[in-house]
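Data's thin. Show one?
=====
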Amino acid sequence: MDPNNTLRIELQFSGGMELLFDNQKMIKANVPAFFSTESTTEKHAATIGDLIGWIASTQLRERPELFIGPDGSVRSGILVLVNGADWELEGELEYELEDRDEIVFISTLHGG
């Protein structure tokens, strides 16, 4: 795969997550297929960990602390689905993105 390629990823937000993204429930995004490692210029295939950082820097409109946790992952209380499966079954942050993946972020915490 050419390092200049992008992946077409469908992002979905619900359970209140859409409020952080200008009320968008779905974003069809072109995400870089490769990211550089922090300590080197080597490139690696895009992972969900990379995607979360990319979303935070390009799509998130407000209150990043409600999306990103202290460890750089999504904060607790957000369910992440990869093509309909819990991301825990797919390797969480290490899952390598594929073209046309559907990634869903659902907040499970609600005020009352």
Helices lie at 48-58.
